[in-house]
Design brief:
The structure is a homodimer of 109-residue chains.
Chain A (H helix, E strand, L loop, with lengths): L2 H4 L3 H11 L2 E2 H11 L8 H13 L3 E6 L7 E6 L1 H24 L6
Antiparallel strand pairs in A: 1-3, 2-3
Helix pairs in contact in A: 2-5
Chain A binds a DNA duplex (30 and 30 nucleotides) through helix 1, helix 3 and helix 4.
Amino acid sequence: MDKEMMKGNIDLILLSLIAERDLYGYEMTKKLKRLSDEAYSMSEGTLYPALKRMERKGWVTSYWSAPEGERRKKYYTMTKEGETELERKQKDWASIQSLLYKARRSYDT
Amino acid sequence: MDKEMMKGNIDLILLSLIAERDLYGYEMTKKLKRLSDEAYSMSEGTLYPALKRMERKGWVTSYWSAPEGERRKKYYTMTKEGETELERKQKDWASIQSLLYKARRSYDT
DNA sequence: ATATGAACCCTTGTAATACGATGTATGATA
DNA sequence: TATCATACATCGTATTACAAGGGTTCATAT
């Protein structure tokens, strides 16, 4: 997978995951790898700053889990603002897709 | 349109346009604006460096047009390498789309 | 004549980003 | 006890998109 193409799409991907259910960071990397059939590995140097950024923007919030005998995990959950932003990004994605479609058929225009 | 989301997609968009037929830079901005129903304006500060970059990578080549009585225009045309790269980027785009699709249905996984 | 604006090309500076490298700690397993 | 997977985090580097600015040419309006 072209890493340059992930630029700008990282947030959309993470928001899509978190919208389904609360996840912790490390779990996201594993899940993305599995969902992409091992094609894409999000580096932790990408993931954790991205989560911080999204929290700062108010799209997600986090909480620590502390069950007995388990390792601590920091879970992320969506906010209303995050849902709004996700919808916005989904629309943008669709717009770019439409633009690409038209570009491939624009010889005479 | 979210400008952060354009990152990494600029090259794909431009390659898609140039693959259809040779274009000059200024023409590309007008065409993109029209194809997007005025929603997206690619700034010239984005366009020209992008074209230079792609030429440096061997994806496109350029030539000046010099018809009588017309302004000079710098046209860009695809190379074999550019076609290969376009196909690669189209596959990457499809992969991300598939990943997004799966992410939205991954509650139990 | 000349002012204006559109068409056309380009560069520079800034902020944001993705990621490799690196660090730390804990729990399980060999 | 050594090692590996799990889990969180930061820093430095290269790359990027874009606003702002600069320049030329041509047509049209004043």
